[in-house]
Amino acid sequence: MSEVVDGLVTVIPAGGVGSRLWPLSQPHRPKFLLDLLGTGATLIQDTVARVSPLSERVVIVTGERHAPAVASQVPEVPAANLVTEPSPRDSMAAIALAAALIEERWGSQVMASFAADHLIPDAEAFRATVREAARAAQGGKVVVIGIEPTEPSTAFGYIEMGEPIDGDARHVVAFTEKPDAETAAGMLARGGFAWNAGMFVMRTDVLLGHLDRLQPTLAAGAREIAAAWDGPSREEVLARVWPTLTKIAIDHAIAEPVAAEGGVAVVPASFEWHDVGDFDSLAELSEPTGGAVSIGREAAVATVGASAPLVVGGTKPVVVVGVDDAVVVESDEAILVTVRSAAQRVKDAAGALAEA
Amino acid sequence: MSEVVDGLVTVIPAGGVGSRLWPLSQPHRPKFLLDLLGTGATLIQDTVARVSPLSERVVIVTGERHAPAVASQVPEVPAANLVTEPSPRDSMAAIALAAALIEERWGSQVMASFAADHLIPDAEAFRATVREAARAAQGGKVVVIGIEPTEPSTAFGYIEMGEPIDGDARHVVAFTEKPDAETAAGMLARGGFAWNAGMFVMRTDVLLGHLDRLQPTLAAGAREIAAAWDGPSREEVLARVWPTLTKIAIDHAIAEPVAAEGGVAVVPASFEWHDVGDFDSLAELSEPTGGAVSIGREAAVATVGASAPLVVGGTKPVVVVGVDDAVVVESDEAILVTVRSAAQRVKDAAGALAEA
Description:
2 copies of one chain form a homodimer. By secondary structure, chain A is α/β, with parallel strands linked by helices. Chain A folds into 2 domains: 9-269, Alpha-Beta Complex (Spore Coat Polysaccharide Biosynthesis Protein SpsA, Chain A), CATH 3.90.550; 291-355, no CATH class. In chain A, 33% of the residues lie in helices and 23% in strands. Chain A contains 11 helices and 15 strands. The first copy, chain A, has helices at 43-51, 67-73, 90-106, 123-138, 181-190, 204-214, 216-229, 234-241, 250-260, 279-286, 349-355; strands spanning 9-14, 57-63, 82-85, 110-113, 142-147, 157-164, 170-176, 193-203, 264-269, 293-295, 301-304, 310-312, 318-321, 326-330, 335-339. In chain A, strands 5-8-6-7-9 form a 5-stranded mixed beta barrel, surrounded by 4 helices. In chain A, helix 2 (67-73) links the parallel strand 2 (57-63) and strand 3. Chain A is globular, with a radius of gyration of 21 Å. The A-B interface holds A 22-23, 292, 300-305, 309, 314, 316-323, 326, 328, 330, 333-339, 341-342, 345-346, 348-350, 352-353, 355-356 and B 22-23, 292, 300-305, 309, 314, 316-323, 326, 328, 330, 333-339, 341-342, 345-346, 348-350, 352-353, 355-356. Strand 13 (318-321) of chain A pairs parallel with strand 15 (335-339) of chain B, so a sheet runs across the interface. Chains A, B: It comes from Demequina mangrovi. Chains A, B: Pfam families: NTP_transferase.
C-alpha cells in the first residue's frame, strides 16, 4: 500500500503570533515562520514536510502579510494552494474557506487540518495516526486526533473519549475547555481523556453540511468566496464577504455541538507532540543533556551558581550568575531576560516595552 | 586662602581590575578606565578632576599595559608623572616608589594617596577633608581619612578612632580587617569606628622613614629605582629591582604597625563615598527614582512582574519578566545576567566562561 492517502487534502491554518515567544515571534514574524529549535527548518516547513508523504494536496491558509514569507519557505506548495486571509477571522472561517475551495476544485474530499506551528518529532507515527483518522472520516464522522496526556496540563483542552467505533476510533463524549489544575489531575487519574491539539480530519461535505446547519451565514459566505476564488471576482467577493464571516473557533462552531450529537470520533495517538507555546516548553523540549541550552547561536554560555539556562539567539557569550532556570533570548529587535516559571507572562513583554 | 595646598602631591595608584564588574571591567579594561555611571567621565578622570584643585602635582602609578589609556584619558597629568609598574607588586611598592620619586624630584613633601576607582559625589567636601588631613600630616603623623559608616558593611576594613589630637584629627587606636556581619554591627552600635577607604596623607620623609624601619628592603629598592628614574639607567634598575620589592599592602606594611606605635591619625569625613565594587552597589548608587536604571545605553528597558532592573550597555531594548532585582550588562565582549543579591559572585563569571 502506498503511504499517500488517496484524495486526502491537508489544510494548514498558519496564524497566531505566538506572543509568549517574544521577541523571537512578533506580529511581522509569527511563530510558524521560525526555526524555533535551530534544526534548520521552520515550524511550517516542518509541518509541510510531515504531511507531504500523506497527501498530494496541501492548502495553507494564512494572513496576507505573511503570504510572501510562507511562499518563500514552502515553495513546494503551489501558489494556487496558498489561501490568503485579508484579516484574521478565527479558525472556523479559515477552515471553512479551505473546505469550500477544495469542493470547488476537486469535489468532496477528506481533509485534514493541522496547525502550522506544532512540533511532532516522530512524523511516521503521526502519519500512521492520520491514516487511521482518514479511514474513520470516510464513514462520515468528524474525527479529532487525541494526544495522550503526559501530564495534567492546564494549557490544552481535553477530549473525553467514549465507546470504540472501529479500528482505533472511539466516540467523543465531549470536549472540555482548558481545565484548572485540579480538574486536569482528576481527568488524568480517571483516564479516558486526550489532549485536543486541534487536529481534525473529516470529509469536506460532512464539515460543510454541519456548518450549513450550525453556522449558516459562515457556511454561505465561505462557499460564496470559494466559488469566486479561481475567477475574476475573487478580490471583490473576498473584500465584501470575508469581513462578514462569523469569528469563531472550529471547536465551538463544530467540534462541541457535533460531539453532542454523537458525530465526532477520536483517534487516540501516542506520538510525542508539543505546541512549544512558551520558553518553558522550549527549554523542556531542548534539555536532554541537562546542560545549558543554546538555540540559534554560536557563542558560549556559562553559569555561576545557576542551573542550566536557555539561551536563544545573539552572538555574544552569555554568563548567568545566581539565577536558576534563566531564559535569555536575543532577537534582532530586543533582549528578553526571564525565568522558566515566568514563561507565561512573556506575552505581556511587547506591550510593556511599547509603554516604556 | 587659595584652595591649593602648598606642596601637596597627590598620588593615584591605578590598579585592580574590578572583577565583580565583569564584563564591563576586564584585565585589559580595568574599572578605573570606565565611565561606570555614564556621566561622561571615567573614574580616573573623575579622580584627577577631584584632586586637581588641591594639589598642583599629581602622580599616577599604573601598570605598563594601561599607561597609554591613562595618558589618553588624563592628558593634564604630565607624562613624567605617569609612573608605570612592570608588574603588580601591591599598594606599598607603588606608593613607596611614588614617595621616593617625589623626594628625588621636589624634596620632602606632603603626599596624599587616593584610589583611582572610587566615587565621591561631593568633591568640595572631599577637598576640605584632605586639607584638614594635610595639616595633621605636617606634624609628622601618617593620616588616614576615615569614612563615616552608613551601614554595617562587611566589605571594608574599619578604623578604630581614639582621642582627639587637634582640629578634626584623632588618634587611630587600631585598624580592623573586613569584619563579619556581627562584628560590623557591634562596631556601628558602639560608635567611634570609620571605614578605611585607603586614603592616606603623610609627609614623604615620614612614610619613607617608617618604611626604612619596617620594610627596609622595600624602602631601599624604592629609593634605588626612584634615584634612577629620571636618568639613563631607569629601565635597567627597574628591571633588576622592581621584581624584588616585597608584595604587601600599605595597610599591613605601614598603617597597622605605625598605628600600634601611636603614629597614625584619622580625620573623620562625612562625605558620601562609594567604592562601586559590584553591580549591587552600582544599582544602589543609581536608583534614586525607583525606576529601571539604564547606564550607557539609549534603548528602552521594560519589566513585567519584576522590580526595576539595572541594565548597563547594549543597544537593544531589554525586557525583564518575572525576575526581581535583575542586572543585565552588555559589553562589546559578553552579556551578563544576574540579580543584585548575586553581585559578589560575578567575579567568577569570566572564569566560568573561559571553561565553557
